[in-house]
Amino acid sequence: ILQARYAVLLERKLAKREILERYLNTIYFGNNAYGIAAAAEAYFGKSVQNLTLTEGAFLAGMIRSPIGYDPIRRPEQSRARFKVVMGRLVDEHLISADSATYLGDNWPIPEILKSRPGESFQPTYFSAAVRDYLLQGSDLLGETVQERYNNLYRGGLSIYTTLDPRLQQAAEDARLAKLPANS
Prior knowledge:
Blueprint: H1 2-13, H2 16-26, H3 36-44, H4 53-62, H5 75-91, H6 97-106, H7 125-137, H8 145-154, H9 165-178
Helix pairs in contact: 4-5, 5-6, 7-8
């Protein structure tokens, strides 16, 4: 009853599209991928805007049980779930029955992760400083540290900074070439 009340209150405050967007930006997709953007990167190596209907349907099918339908560890269960999702696309008249059958049997289920969310780069001083600022030095991502941590690592955010990686690398190379190593 309490959850039904919360749902009614939420629908009064936000449009259904906003509720769905927030849900998709935080839901767990397995393999440390929180949010649809992280899942698109992890399983397909592309941004969410570039997903095909089939790839999006595959990810939607994982929502029910991201661990149970994990394509890396449980490819048979993942394939079976994908076939169910293809059937739903037929029911919604988004693809033909023949296409659904063909895709269900032949579409390549992701066998390896294209990237590991949260582990895709070597942290630099600059990225660590940005992370520390977002977690400790501001309330841009939430009022509490836990809220900020969840939003930073599970929110599917894109963070843009003034750092030019090429110039940063040139500066680090120059420092290594000119300054003696610490002993």
